[in-house]
């Protein structure tokens, strides 16, 4: 089930190493301001979708995608986030 998230992270890392001209993923990875703006926009769209009970899954997917690109663009590794979450288990 979480394999697609792993694939998304690997795609981001691959695109950082081997950019593809015209790639939206590369645009987000190269422009940290755009990546930040998109995360904020998508979170707001998700909140609205939840409140209106429409397109929740679609908007949640947009949030995850844009958040993963924002994290990768800023050198924040998902592996480190998982370790942090694991350390919080009680």
Gist of the model:
With 90 residues, the chain is mainly alpha-helical.
Layout of helices and strands:
Blueprint: H1 3-17, H2 24-30, H3 32-52, H4 56-73, H5 78-87
Helix pairs in contact: 1-4, 2-3, 2-4, 3-4
What features would you describe in this structure?
With 90 residues, the chain is mainly α. It has one domain: Helix Hairpins (Orthogonal Bundle). The chain has five helices and no strands. Helix 1 crosses helix 4. It starts with a helix and ends with a helix.
Q: Which short descriptors sum up this protein?
A:
mainly alpha, 5 helices, globular, Helix Hairpins, 90 residues
* Total DSSP E strands: 0
Q: Would you tell me which CATH topology applies?
A: Helix Hairpins
Q: State the CATH architecture.
A: Orthogonal Bundle
Helical stretch tally: 5
Shape summary: globular
Strand content: under 5%
What composes the largest sheet? none
Superfamily (CATH H level) name: MazG-like
The helix-strand sequence is HHHHH
Q: How far is the N terminus from the C terminus?
A: 25 Å
When the domains are counted, the total is 1
CATH top level is: Mainly Alpha
Radius of gyration: 14 Å
Backbone structural class = mainly alpha
| Low-pLDDT residue intervals, each spanning 5 or more residues | none
Mean pLDDT over the residues: 96
Helicity range: over 70%
């Amino acid at each position: 089930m979480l394999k697609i998230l792993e694939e998304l992270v690997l795609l981001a890392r691959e695109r950082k190493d081997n950019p593809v001209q015209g790639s939206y993923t590369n645009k987000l990875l190269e422009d940290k301001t755009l990546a930040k703006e998109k995360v904020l926009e998508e979170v707001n769209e998700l909140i609205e979708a939840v409140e209106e009970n429409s397109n929740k899954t679609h908007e949640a997917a947009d949030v995850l995608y844009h958040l993963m690109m924002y994290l990768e663009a800023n050198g924040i590794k998902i592996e480190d986030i998982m370790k942090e979450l694991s350390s919080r288990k009680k």
